[in-house]
Design brief:
Length: about 170
């Protein structure tokens, strides 16, 4: 009926006693599971009180504020920064598991095609000669992309190589 009586912690033993208490005497069940009666009754008293309710609400609040992308270690950090509450990372992980919340993993963008570089590569006109004798004969540009939240922002700068002045910034 009970399987391996030594398996599991005391909590699982107390739950087994609780389920079988209507058919058997509690004292006999406590002897069978090798736990004290006082421990079993203390378990029944504790069971009604919701453990870590305030911590669960705080973790849920931080999780929702950051759209569910944070894992337990970052939630621990933001609990301290935003709310001034220090909590052990293992406790944060346990509560997240109790609440059934998990971080959304952001996948890195990977190129999934092979480009034909023949038509895309331009001629190397400068040939690494980045000095100009007069303004305007040599302009260079670069484009950089930044990920901000779920969107990409692009920044392109155009420079004159004569005096390295920025001619234009395009956002």
């Amino acid at each position: 009926m009970f399987g391996n009586l030594d398996a599991g912690g005391k909590t699982s033993k107390y739950r087994s006693i609780e389920s079988a208490a209507k058919d058997y005497a509690v004292s006999d069940l406590c002897k069978l599971f090798a736990v004290s009666k006082s421990g079993y009754y203390a378990f029944l008293k504790r069971k009604g009180v919701e453990r870590d309710q305030a911590a669960k609400e705080l973790i849920q609040k931080v999780y929702e504020r950051y759209n569910g992308v944070l894992g337990y270690s970052r939630i621990q950090l933001f609990l301290l920064q935003d709310h001034g509450v220090w909590m052990n990372h293992k406790k944060v992980l346990r509560i997240m598991q109790d609440l059934g919340i998990r971080s959304r993993i952001r996948r890195k963008h990977r190129c999934n095609y092979v480009s034909s570089e023949g038509g895309r590569v331009t001629k190397n006109i400068l040939k690494r000669d980045f000095k100009a004798d007069a303004p305007n004969p040599k302009w260079v540009t670069d484009i950089t992309q930044y990920r901000v939240g779920e969107k990409w922002l692009y920044l392109s700068a155009v420079k004159d190589l004569f005096n390295i002045t920025k001619l234009s910034l395009i956002k």
